[in-house]
Every structure is written in C-alpha cells, then in structure tokens.
Amino acid sequence: MIYPVLLCGGSGTRLWPLSRKSYPKQFAALTGPESLFQASARRLAGEGYAPPTIVTSSDFRFIVTEQLAAAGIDPGAVLIEPQPKNTAPAVLSAALYLARTDPDALILVAPSDHVIPDAAAFRAAVAAAEPAARAGRIVTFGIAPDRPETGYGYLELSAQPDGSGAPVALRRFVEKPDSDRAVAMLAEGRYLWNAGIFLFSAATMQAACAAHAPDLVAPVTAALDQAKPDLGFLRLDAAAWAGLPDISIDYAVMERAPNLSVVPFAGGWSDLGGWDAVWREAGPDACGVVTAGAATAIDCADTLLRSESPTLEVVGIGLENIIAVAMPDAVLVADMSRAQDVKKAVAVLKAKAAKQAETFPRDHRPWGWFESLVIGSRFQVKRIVVHPGAALSLQSHHHRSEHWIVVEGTALVTVDDTKKLVSENQSVYIPLGAVHRMENPGKVPMVLIEVQTGSYLGEDDIIRYEDVYARG
User: Fold this and answer.
1) Could you give all domains of the chain from N- to C-terminal order, each with its CATH number?
2) pLDDT tens, residue by residue, 273-319
3) Mean pLDDT of the chain
4) Shortest CA distance to 293 belongs to which of 310, 281, 276?
C-alpha cells in the first residue's frame, strides 16, 4: 500500500487573477472539468493506494473536503497547518503522522497543482520506484525535458537514462539555469526537470530529517503530539509550529541526503507555473491560439484568451504573443514573454490595497459560497449558494438589515423565535439586530438573492451565537 500525501497550501500568484490567496490555482479547473487538486487526488487513487493524506491551511480545509467529495474520493487525514512554513515541515508532519500507524509506510508526496495527463504512465513510474524506496532510498521523479526551460530546477543524473524507467542515482540538484546553460543541459541528456515529487518510507524520512534537518524534528513532533481534532480535521499545535523555520524539503533534506535516486518520467507534466504554461498545456491551434470560456480570437497568433464569466465576452483582434484573462472583477493583459512577471502585478496591487490582489470574487465558506453582484454606498446584493444539509451560523448584525429571496430550492429560516420554510419565489425580511439563520434542509443546492441595506456592510459585522463549523 502506498500512502499519497498531497501538499495543498500554496497561493499561485503567477496565475493571477484566476489564482489568488483566498482561492489558489489548485482548486481551479484550468485544463479540464476537474480542479488540479481533484485531478491530483484521482491520479493517486485506486488499487494499491491508501486514501490521500492532505496537508493544507485552515482557510482551505472545507474546500479540500468539498472537492474530494465531488470527485468521489474519501480522504484520509487532513492535517491543518497553523501557518505556512514551506514544504519541509509539511512533509515531515505527514511522515510522522503516518508512521504512528505504519512505521514502514511507503509515502508518495506530491504537490496538488501539477498537471500529469497520463495517470497510468505516472503510476507505472511509481511502481518502478517502489523497490528502491522500500530498500531505504529517497526516490524523486525527474521529467524528461522537451525544451531548454529556464523556469525549472533540474536534476543531474550520475548516468544517462537507459530508457527502461529504472531508478538512476542522483548526482546533484541544479538551480534554474540561464538560457544558454539550459540549451547545453538539454543536449547533454543527463538532466531532468525537478518535479518535486518524492517516494520514501516513513522511517527513511524520519532518519533523513534527524540527520540533515534536526531543528525540524522536535517542533513538528510536538505540533503532532499536541494536535487537536476539529470536525474531522487534525489541527497541528500552533505554538509548536510557530518555532519552525520556513524551509523547503529540497533545501532541508534532499540536497544533503546521499541516498537519493531518480526515476525518469517521459510522460507529460507541467507545474502550470505561469499563463504561458497554461497556454502550452491547453493545446494551441494551428495559429498558436487558445481560447477558453466566452472568448473569441480574430486573426490572432500565439495568444491565450480566457473569460471566467459567461456574461463577459473577451474578443481579441490581430493579437500576437498576448495573454488576456478576464474575471468579473479584474482583467490581465500581458505579453506572453512576461508571464513570469504576473506576480509583480500582485505585489503592486497589494501595495495599493486593491482587494483583487488576494481576494477571489466568489467567497467560499464551509456551507457553500457567495458573491457580490452589486455594491452601493448603503446597499449590497449577493448571490448565496448553500449546500444540501448545510447551515449558516446563528447570527445578528449591528448595522444592516437583510431581505432574502429564494430562487432555487427551499430554505429553513430562523428569525428570532420563529422558524419557517421559504420556497422558490418567496422572500423573508431580517430586521436589523434580529438573531437569524438560514439552512438548506433539501437534497439540492439552495440559491437565494440577499439584499443588504444599512450604514455598514462589511463581513466583520457578524455576531455569532452558534456555529456548526466552530468559527469564532
């Protein structure tokens, strides 16, 4: 049995405006009908694989379980990091957790935001790596390069791969090269892209961390010892976690460990590290054009046009080497060669306090999601979707009243001491200060339009009296 561990906490600023801090790229459907996270979980599911262990942040815990449920995958443990500390503490926490039930557990660590179209070929590569991992090696997976890429780190092998897919000893890690060096490495044939995917036994990783990153062991162990269950999640202890360094597993362990092997993988792979990668993975047409959503290209070449709103039509005329991505609240237009600079735009927007820098227009909550449709000086109109069986907290507001109009499904509404069912085309008024809650007692999503009026409409104007999701 192989235990998949999916790392699910990054922010993906290079795919702004679709990927943001509040809803990063792993949860988006970038190259198909499923999100990258769902596709990653499905790739590592099935015969021979245990339910996936997820390491994520508190903000994403309900998104993780919701997306796994939609994909028909039952998770194993979901470990909640109190704060991001890079991949080394995350990997060690998962290894220590799994070792407590199976000291010889064979663990496959993978990012949750990569694209590997041929899942069967990747599982075959994992099978080829398994004997070496069981023998005490740390096995990483190197991607056979098809171009002189300067955006990836590389793995230099001790010998050129023989084409069998068997593990090859790693000579060294190589930082991202300049273009001339990338061309030379491609020609040499002993260099593979570093995919950041690893297979090892729990005991091997514990020994490697003890030898090469001993400052991680005690805090991560303490964070796990003092972890607290919370609605099916396991919250690692915040005080112990706070003392950990912010360090990647590559720097902490992999670049120092002598027992590393590499399995070459010649199948397709991308970390979708920029919009140019999305363009490439989407399969440009004969003119090099990719369109997605409500987008139209006229006489364009080597261009990506993408609309994330069915009511927002993006039209490009005579464009070359252009990226244009439209969201309901933000539009990116950039030269294809500047795709890696999109993260600079996020930094500039953060500096000017633009909410679009980090906040997604659709706000995901444990019970469903909402989005603002219209905002005025003393009013706001929202669309709210509540999952079947879910309920918002029992709450009141100091500064606003609300009108709810149900447009799909049925809501069970509490207003002070009164409870009643509100069906499609019916409405209810929530006076300022009233204690209220909405629930979805049905088996289909419930959709309502909320009209808020008042002197202050911020999300922090909430007094919670009772919450099934244990929020403050």
Assistant:
1) 2-265 (3.90.550.10), 275-351 (no CATH), 362-466 (2.60.120.10)
2) 999 999 999 999 999 999 999 999 999 999 999 999 999 999 999 99
3) 94
4) 310
What's the pLDDT band for 234 if we cut at 50, 70, 90?
A: very high
Query: Is there a contact between 393 and 368 (Cβ–Cβ < 8 Å)?
Result: no
- List pLDDT tens digits, range 319-371: 999 999 999 999 999 999 999 999 999 999 999 999 999 998 888 888 999 99
Measure CA of the first residue to CA of the last residue in the chain; give whole Å. 39
Cis amide leading into 167 (omega within 30): no
Element (H, E) at 414: strand 411-415
Q: Residues 458, 372: contact at Cβ < 8 Å? A: no
> Could you tell me the pLDDT band of residue 472, with boundaries at 50, 70 and 90?
low
Query: Following DSSP, what letter does each residue of 288-355 receive, concatenated?
Result: SEEEESSEEEES-BSEEEEES-TT--EEEES-BSEEEEE-SS-EEEEEGGGGGGHHHHHHHHHHTT-G
Question: For residue 162, what pLDDT is reported?
Answer: 81
* Contact of 25 with 8, CB cutoff 8 Å: no
CA distances (Å), 131 to each of 51, 120, 126, 141, 186, in order?
A: 21, 18, 10, 14, 29
Specify the amino acid at residue 13: T
Q: What percentage of the chain reaches a pLDDT higher than 70?
A: 100
Beta-carbon neighbour count of residue 406 at 10 Å?
Answer: 22
pLDDT value, residue 467: 85
- Pull the structure tokens for residue 366: 């444990």
List CB contacts of 350: < 8 A, sequence separation 6 or more.
Answer: 357, 358
Q: What is the largest CA-CA distance in the chain?
A: 76
The position carrying tokens 């306090």 is 353
Three-point CA angle 425, 429, 432, nearest 5°: 155
Q: Could you give phi then psi for residue 20, rounded to 5 degrees?
A: -140, 170
Residue labelled with tokens 């606003």: 400
Question: Which pLDDT band holds residue 471 (cuts at 50, 70, 90)?
Answer: low
**Under DSSP, is residue 188 helix (H, G, I), strand (E, B) or coil?**
helix
* Run of H or E including 42: helix 36-43
Residue 197 phi, psi (nearest 5): -115, 135
What is this structure's pTM? Answer: 0.89
Alpha carbon distance 49, 289 (integer Å): 38
Q: What are phi and psi of 116, to 5 degrees?
A: -135, 95
